[in-house]
What we know:
By secondary structure, this protein is α+β, with helices and mostly antiparallel strands. The chain has helices at about 25-30, 40-50, and strands spanning about 1-5, 15-20, 60-65, 70-75, 85-90, 95.
Amino acid sequence: DADGLLATPDGDVVAVDARLDDPEGLASQLGVTFRASPPELMLAAYRRWGESFVDHVDGDFAVVIWDAKRRRMVFARDLFGLRPLYVRESHGTSFFASEVDALA
């Protein structure tokens, strides 16, 4: 299992809670280093496949991506939704967590 946060120089931000089944295979498909972290893999997949990146990632995951260029937030979970992802919006600000108590 891996949790992680990544902020890129161009303003993208990724927060992830994941258990990836084949990170090496995904890295190979994406042309990134085999030592890429889960947030790096998720961002590379998003940049390659857009919002359909979830169809290419095997494992259990919940991920939030701030796409600075498009000025949008992407919330995604694996097909079966095994990793929780709770979202709350208040006064134009989005809050998210993998535990509902964290949003209280």
